[in-house]
Design a protein that fits this description.
Helix content is 44%, strand content 14%. By secondary structure, it is of the alpha+beta class. α2 (23-30) crosses α3 and α5 crosses α7.
């Protein structure tokens, strides 16, 4: 396969994939080394430089998205991008899990100071978190962590892209 044809195929695969597709997966499909695929993706990015679309690197792969500067125009479509936003409890629970994963529900509740059954259930339903196994010890509680869908939803390449966690003093560290 010629590079020009491979570039068209890569463009089509990135567009059609229902998830961010990695250079390794594209390379396997095309029988090319991932480094060649990445160079072809850079060429595609250059071709779309003056377009309303762009290729975003997210969750270990690539996906086509509209340019951020077009958000006000897209808002005029009047269609919500998400059925309902996460509640404050959901966001708080998700942040705790994202920064401290894998961890148990009781650990989340210890940090939050309130029960988290509903928030964890919602995050599981939306596939933003998943069960990562069980902790050794009494009762073998479930361990939770974030999913690839979490990375896609928040536009992160990996968990390394999370902002630095602010230093929050613990009880007893606060001086009066």
């Amino acid at each position: 396969m010629k590079l020009e044809e491979a570039q068209k195929v890569i463009e089509g695969l990135i567009f059609a994939a229902p998830y961010p597709i990695s250079s390794e997966e594209l390379g396997t499909i095309l029988e090319f080394e991932p480094i060649i695929v990445e160079r072809l993706i850079e060429r595609i990015r250059e071709q779309f430089a003056n377009s309303g679309l762009m290729i975003r690197t997210v969750a270990g792969g690539y996906q086509f998205v509209t340019r951020p500067e077009l958000v006000s125009w897209i808002d005029k479509l009047g269609r919500p991008l998400i059925s309902a936003p996460l509640s404050l409890a959901g966001l708080e629970t998700l942040a705790i899990i994202a920064y401290q994963q894998p961890l148990t529900k009781s650990h989340v509740e210890q940090i939050r100071g309130v029960r988290s059954d509903s928030a964890i259930s919602t995050l599981l339903d939306r596939e933003l978190i998943m069960e990562f196994g069980r902790k050794d010890g009494p009762g073998r509680p479930i361990l939770y962590g974030t999913t690839q869908k979490f990375l896609v939803h928040f536009g992160l390449r990996s968990l390394d892209d999370l902002p630095d966690r602010p230093k929050v003093p613990r009880i007893g560290e606060i001086s009066e």
